[in-house]
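One record is kept unedited as follows:
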Amino acid sequence: MIDLIYDTIEAQKVILKKFPEARFQDASDDIHPDRFEVDIEIENEDKWWEFCVKAGLGVVSLGFQLRLRNEHNKDKHKEFIDKVTKWVEEMDKIPEFVKNKQK
């Protein structure tokens, strides 16, 4: 699975903790200086999306943002929103990645 992340190398460190096999490729340009592609082998994409939510990467993941906004199939969209809601409810604190961004 491939996703685009709009953030610095700090996000790569967060990803590597959970997915040590992740591969990264610089995808920055003049408009998006902090952007990279992440490629991971994963059987269930929901594991990636759940990680994005719980690690605080959902707001910088292009794939996650597109999934949130994809309303072409109302049933699948509702199912995804329900999953995201569950993942957020399971969180007991603000992710460290997000806390560091607030400083």
In short: Residues 6 and 35 are 4 Å apart (CA to CA). DSSP finds five helices and three strands in the chain. The mean pLDDT is 89.
